[in-house]
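B., you asked whether I could sanity-check this one before it goes into the benchmark set. Here's the sequence:
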Amino acid sequence: MPFSPQNDVSPAGQPCGLAFPVEAGAAALRAEVEARLADADVAWKMRLLARDLIDALGPAIEKTILVAGLPARLRRVRTVRITRGVREYGSCNIPRANNGECKLAFSGHLFFPGNADALIDVVAHELLHACLPPREGHGALFHQGMTLLNDAMGLHIAVYSEKTAIQQSESLYRYKVTCAACGNAFYYLRAGAVVRHPSRYRCAKCGKSAFKVHRLAAE
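And here's what the prediction gave me:
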């Protein structure tokens, strides 16, 4: 298995579950993921689910884009990490020192019942990055590969993911600061300077000073 033991075993030391049978079809994969999400309530269970998805989707993604003639080869996934991110669903880090490996990370806010489709698409998104040249980003090759995978595997990979995970994560925060000019949003647990004095700050995305502060319902 291409994963380091310290990141991909349960606390009891049990090995990861079997890979999902992609050949059974996208619908079967979604159903299995949805069943697992009901029990993915701690980080190590989320990590095992992400690892199983990588095992299932990786070979099919690599085969699809290679058959199409794209200059791509799936890198060895060295580690899988679960984060608390609310603005970044997933990431693929390719070390400069070893172009044959990558490190994947996924937001824990993706792992809730009813979010199987989004989780599968985010994992597939990062695996596509893991196949392409290090500095490709969301360039022409990525868009070409994205279209191929969506058509061939029944996926819905997008450059920017759906908002379901962000909506789910709002319950973890007390404040939401939104730029009225461009819609850029930030979440805070405490009333820091931006929350208390929004007019003093400018949006990093559009440069406008138009922040609106919303108090979120506390649990």
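One thing to flag: The two ends are 41 Å apart (CA to CA). Otherwise nothing jumped out at me.
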